[in-house]
């Protein structure tokens, strides 16, 4: 899904379209306008609740999701699934049926009667599940960085290391590791190898550096405000992509 788009578009940038606007018509117009501008420079689109809650799932599907599909851009719903299994399945099913190609999920909920049924639904529908391994905000270390005892091995590990191993064991389609913690990207990359791609949010406004994240092992960069809050979103996206040429090796 995302890999094919990355190769086709010669870009590993995913736009986090987290537009906030109290006027619904203006929100739709802004989202579609930004998407049109930036589409030539991205390989995918990520949505969160900033758009979904005010617009609702049906209207989001009829506007932003529809246009992304027309532009042949894979869609990630950043819903952070984290409930009991039967609820998780309904969440996943609704998003997949609405056109999303992948969802994010929290490993904290566990496998049995947690994420196992979500993976079953995703595999059946040809969709993806991306696990949150280490988030990008400053308080992430309070949970993802705490020392825990791995129930399988008895070893003392940091929580994100356990989650990285679960991404491999569960055959996840991706692992989220914040670009604000490049050393964590490196540690997770050594655990994942090429088995599970790393998606890194937090580039730009949150303080993460795109080039550094790639050098430490990120496969995809999730960038939001640095692009869509720019006076010229297309030029912002183009500029980021150009700055990565030394690592990506692509000529556009």
Task: Provide structural commentary.
By secondary structure, the protein is α/β, with parallel strands linked by helices. It has a domain at 2-127 and 198-246: Aldolase class I (TIM Barrel). Helices cover 50% and strands 17% of the residues. The chain has twelve helices and ten strands. It has helices spanning 2-9, 24-38, 49-70, 85-97, 111-125, 141-144, 159-169, 182-192, 210-216, 225-228, 233-243, 245-248, and strands spanning 13-16, 44-47, 75-81, 102-105, 128-134, 147-149, 156-158, 174-177, 198-200, 220-223. The strands form two sheets. Strands 1-2-3-4-5-8-9-10 form an eight-stranded parallel beta barrel, surrounded by seven helices. β9 (198-200), α9 (210-216) and β10 (220-223) form a beta-alpha-beta unit. α2 (24-38) packs across α3. It is globular, with a radius of gyration of 17 Å.
